[in-house]
Amino acid sequence: MTRAAAPPAALGLPSPGAIVELLKPVTWFPPMWAFGCGVVSSGISPDGRWHLVILGILLAGPLLCATSQVVNDWFDRHVDAINEPGRPIPSGRIPGRWGLYLALLWTALSIALAAALGPFVLAAAGLGLLLAWAYSAPPVRLKQNGWWGNAACGMSYEGLAWLTGASLLAGGAIPDMRVLLVALLYSAGAHGIMTLNDFKSLAGDRALGVGSLPARLGPERAARVACVMMAVPQVGVIALLAHGGHGLSAALVTASLVAQVACMARLLRDPRGLAPWYNATGVSLFVLGMLATAIALGHGGAVAS
């Protein structure tokens, strides 16, 4: 009779399933979407260069975003032991220091692919990785201050991903000022989205002194701040589109924002209970506005010559 192989955990190794869970594929959508919007906003056809688009999506989601998730879970393992003890690291399914080893490995893989895609992509990816580590790792640990931490996340998930997509098909050319402004505005809007994501960890943040905005301001005030942070930048986007003669796109983003405001009114009645609902409704409207904006910019060509 043959002896059954010991499970990975018994050997001090993480299982493949635990690694996939640690990488959190569900979180990859925002930067991949922002990267795609950047590609569209460049106005350059991907015909004949779809391999670059695929590699860029791979970099934005399964590598860079996944790296940020592993780094965060490793340095947040004590908080997660309170908030979500079933996660791979606090539950022991990622044993020992494997969380740190995986964070370092994914960082190296991200740098390698970014370097292969050109200097601009490498610079953007390098800044994104720096922000990812600074967000979670001491002594900087930007997440200790919800204002700075959410700004770092918003810039990484939206702004840098958008600019990378806008530049990649143009051989690393710098996107024009309209794209830079839109990327910055949507990064600011993502600050509010990050605040809503922090509601799920409120108990642990308070217990361990993590200064997320819900912990600092309380759920009601934090929700109001999040709504303002999401709405005001979109007003700036609407003004930019209208000034550039993109009336239809400006109207579409306006309609999206009006619908978001209606969702916000409901959210504010019960921020803790309705934050997940808003992430499924209001945030969906937010990202549809991003696509409408990208299409408008792409029609005019958005890469500096």
Task: Please give a structural write-up.
The chain has a single domain, classed as Farnesyl Diphosphate Synthase (Orthogonal Bundle). It has 13 helices and no strands. It has helices at residues 16-23, 29-42, 50-75, 77-83, 98-116, 119-136, 146-168, 177-197, 202-208, 213-217, 219-243, 247-267, 271-300. The longest helix has 30 residues, at 271-300. It is globular.
Reconstruct the topology from this structure.
Layout lengths: L15 H8 L5 H14 L7 H26 L1 H7 L14 H19 L2 H18 L9 H23 L8 H21 L4 H7 L4 H5 L1 H25 L3 H21 L3 H30 L5
Q: Average the pLDDT over all residues and give the rounded result.
A: 92
Helical segment tally?
Answer: 13
Count of extended strands: 0
Helix content: over 70%
Work out the count of structural domains.
1
Q: Mind summarizing the main beta sheet?
A: none
- Please trace the helix and strand order, writing H or E for each element: HHHHHHHHHHHHH
Indicate the structural class. Answer: mainly alpha
CATH class: Mainly Alpha
Could you tell me how far the N terminus lies from the C terminus, measured between alpha carbons in angstroms?
Answer: 71 Å
Strand content: under 5%
CATH topology: Farnesyl Diphosphate Synthase
